[in-house]
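User: Here's a structure from my thesis project, written as structure tokens. My advisor, Dr. K., wants to see whether a designed sequence matches the one we expressed. Can you design one independently, without my sequence as a hint?
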């Protein structure tokens, strides 16, 4: 019987353990969305994870939806991330860049006055995060068919940039109500071209993005992030089981490094069927403890488990889990913001030399 502390192979990426650092938006990127020394220190501190999945990182200026999040479309971005990957690799860690386009989950203030884009002109419910004064989401502009192909190429270029920055691979963000997820769900996609209507058509954009990334990297260094039942940002579908069964099956044909599934545990969970159809390594995420995470591994529903809030507050989470040590408590008031507080100042059991300066 395997346990969370045993190595595992994800495609062409060898992991020293099965404890994954979830992608975590922290809004700490430096000037012009370029990772700086503070970001470098943050990831270096957490390099004991079997695999670090970076914060969601925008592929273009059109794809941003929050202040202070990182990018991967300029030379400065590449150089900033290169310093991060070098620090993580120096400590023996592995790190994959999560590629992101938020679609309609944005606001003209963040897009130089432009209207956010989406598969269809349907606004999500709720208000734009982190912007003041508070305001409702605007109705997005439906993408022209030719523009969809352009965004696929933006993902491909971002994958090239990630390779130049020294990452071990890329993860396509197709979850949590952002652009690719908006195409997948029929509640947000009412297109009548080849990207709308049937499940096959709604999944086309995701699969084209994945194929474009696999043309840059080997497929064994590409992963996909999915959230079949989370319902974030007004996501809903008339038949999620059929939708995500098809997605898992199609992704399985591509021999990817992994599939990441974020969903709550329970009898309605789609992850076990998705894992069966995918046939490759699966990362499970959903408020797990060490005990519940081990049960997932024992049942064969996942090959690794991702932790989020625990990694925020415990840079040495692997050591704490393995040794049965207590945890630092995360401070939700510092999840988003600026500076080291609540970011790089959580104590570790023993010091780590990351040769980085804060700020």
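Assistant: Designed independently from the structure alone:
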């Amino acid at each position: 019987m395997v346990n969370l502390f045993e190595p595992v192979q994800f495609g062409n990426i060898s992991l020293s353990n099965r404890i994954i650092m979830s992608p975590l938006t922290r809004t700490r990127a430096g000037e012009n969305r370029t990772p700086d020394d503070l970001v470098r220190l943050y990831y270096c501190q957490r390099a004991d994870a079997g695999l670090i999945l970076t914060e969601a990182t925008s592929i273009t200026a059109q794809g941003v939806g929050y202040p202070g999040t990182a990018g991967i479309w300029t030379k400065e971005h590449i150089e900033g991330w290169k310093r991060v990957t070098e620090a993580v690799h120096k400590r023996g860690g592995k790190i994959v860049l999560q590629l992101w386009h938020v679609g309609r989950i944005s606001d003209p203030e963040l897009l130089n006055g432009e209207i956010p884009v989406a598969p269809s002109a349907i606004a999500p419910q709720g208000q734009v995060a982190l912007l003041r004064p508070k305001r409702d989401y605007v109705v997005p502009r439906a993408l022209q068919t030719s523009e969809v192909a352009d965004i696929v190429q933006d993902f491909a270029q971002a994958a090239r940039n990630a390779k130049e920055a020294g990452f071990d691979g890329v993860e396509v963000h197709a979850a949590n109500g952002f652009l690719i997820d908006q195409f997948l769900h029929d509640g947000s996609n009412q297109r009548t071209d080849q990207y709308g209507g049937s499940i096959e058509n709604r999944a086309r954009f995701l699969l084209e993005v994945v194929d474009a990334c696999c043309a840059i990297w080997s497929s064994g260094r590409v992963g996909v992030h999915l959230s079949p039942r989370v319902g974030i940002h007004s996501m809903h579908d008339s038949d999620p089981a059929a939708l995500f069964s098809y997605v898992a099956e199609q992704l399985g044909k591509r021999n990817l490094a992994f599939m990441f599934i974020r969903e709550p545990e329970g009898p309605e969970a789609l992850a076990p069927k998705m894992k069966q159809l995918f046939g490759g390594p699966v990362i499970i995420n959903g408020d797990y403890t060490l005990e519940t995470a081990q049960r997932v591994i024992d049942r064969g529903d996942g090959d690794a488990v991702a932790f989020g809030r625990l990694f925020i507050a415990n840079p040495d989470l692997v050591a704490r889990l393995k040794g049965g040590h207590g945890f630092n408590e995360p401070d939700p008031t510092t999840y988003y913001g600026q500076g080291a507080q609540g970011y790089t100042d959580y104590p570790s059991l023993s010091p780590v030399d990351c040769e980085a300066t804060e700020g």
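When you compare it with your expressed construct, this may help: The mean pLDDT is 96.
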